Amino acid sequence: MFYKSLKTTLSVALGAAILGTSVAAAEFPTRDIRLIVPWPAGGGADAISRKISNIAEQDLPKSIYVENIAGAVTATGLMQMTNARPDGHTVAVLTYDSIITLPRGEMVPGYSLDNMKPIARITSEADAIVVSKQSGIESYEDLIARAKENPGEVRVGVAPKGSGPYLSVMQLEELLDVDFNVITYAGSSSAEAEALLSGELDAAISSLGDFSGLLSSGDAKGVVELTGVQNATYTDVPTLKSKGHDLQTGSFIVLAAPTNTPDDAVETLETTFKAAYDSAEFQDWLAQIGVTADWLGSDEVVAWIDELQSKTFALMDDLEL
C-alpha cells in the first residue's frame, strides 16, 4: 500500500512538473522583451531592429522595446545581454564587429560568442562607397581618378580598424593601387553621415541603407557597391564587379539570446521574428531603404557564423591586421 501510494504521489508530482514546464513555455513571454542594440540610435542597425520588433510584437502578448547601449565596439551592450537572466526576455543585435572584430582582437575580457545563442540572421548589406555632394565627385571613375592624382588626400570615412568597412578600404587600396586618407569613426554610421553632410569627408564606406537619408536628400551619392549583385532599390549605383573587380564585403543583422535560454523560448522568438520578417510591411520597407532581406534560422546561422569567421580571419592574416 505504501509503495502504491508513493508511486501515485510521484506520478502526480511528475505530472505537475511537466504541466508546469509546459504552461511556463506556453506563457512565454510573461513580461516585455528587451532588445539591446549595441549602437547609438540613428544608424542602420538601430532602424532595422526597431522596424522588425515593432511588427513582431503585434503577435505577442507583451511588447518588445529597443534599448541602445553603445560602447566597446558592441561589447558593452552584448555583455549586458549575456549577463541577463537566460529566459528569452533579453535579446540583442549582433553585427559584423560583434562576430569578427571583437573575437579577432580579443578586445574585451569576458566577451565571447560562446555566451550567446543565435536566433536568426535577418538582413545582409553590401558595403558601398558614398560621396559627399560637397566633394564634387560624380562617379566611381571620378573618385579613383582623384585618388590617383592626389595620393593620400581623398578623405574616406570608415569604422575603426578591424571593422568590415576598414577591411574594405584596405582591400580597395591594394586592388585599385590608390592611397586614400582613411579616417576612422567610432560608433555607428550616423557619425560618418554627419561628416559627409558637413564636408568633413569626401567619401565614406558602409551600406547604402545606412546612408539612405543623405541619398534621398541629394546630400550624398552612391558611386559603387562592393558586390556582384545589382541592388534592386539603388539601380543607379553600379557594382564593383561591373567595373571589372571581384570584391564583396558587407555587414548583417543577427539576433541572439544568452546561451542557456530555453529552446522553447528561442523557438517562440524565432517564429515571431520570422513572421515579422515575412510581412509585406517589413519587406517593402527593406526595399525602400535598399537593404537585402537575408533570413537564416537558428539551425543554419551558427554554421554560417563559423564559416564567416574562418574566411575573414584568413583574410586579416593576409593583410596583417
User: CATH-wise, what's the superfamily of the largest domain?
Assistant: Bordetella uptake gene, domain 1
CATH topology of the largest domain: D-Maltodextrin-Binding Protein, domain 2
The total strand number stands at: 10
- Report the radius of gyration as a whole number of Å: 23 Å
Please count the helical segments. 11
CATH architecture of the largest domain: 3-Layer(aba) Sandwich
Helix and strand content put the structural class at alpha/beta
Overall geometric form: globular
Contiguous runs where pLDDT drops below 50 for at least 5 residues = 1-10, 12-25
CATH class of the largest domain: Alpha Beta
Taken in chain order, the helices and strands follow as: HEHEHEHEHEHEHEHEEHHEH
How far apart lie the N and C ends?
Answer: 74 Å
| Percentage of β-strand residues | 15-25%
Mean pLDDT: 90
**Assembly context of the chains:** single chain
Largest sheet: 10 strands, mixed
Number of domains: 2
The amount of helix comes to: 40-55%
Give a verbal description of the structure.
By secondary structure, this protein is of the alpha/beta class. The chain has two domains: 33-124 and 250-319, Bordetella uptake gene, domain 1 (D-Maltodextrin-Binding Protein, domain 2, 3-Layer(aba) Sandwich), CATH 3.40.190.150; 125-243, Periplasmic binding protein-like II (D-Maltodextrin-Binding Protein, domain 2). Helix content is 44%, strand content 20%. It has eleven helices and ten strands. The chain has helices at residues 2-27, 44-56, 75-82, 96-105, 140-149, 164-176, 190-198, 212-217, 263-278, 280-289, 298-318, and strands at residues 33-37, 64-68, 90-94, 116-132, 155-158, 181-184, 203-207, 220-225, 250-258, 292-296. Strands 1, 2, 3, 4, 5, 6, 7, 8, 9 and 10 form a ten-stranded mixed sheet that branches. The radius of gyration is 23 Å and the shape is globular. The N and C termini lie far apart (74 Å). The model is unreliable at 1-10 and 12-25 (pLDDT under 50). Belongs to the UPF0065 (bug) family. This is Tripartite-type tricarboxylate transporter, receptor component TctC. Residues 1-25 form the signal peptide.
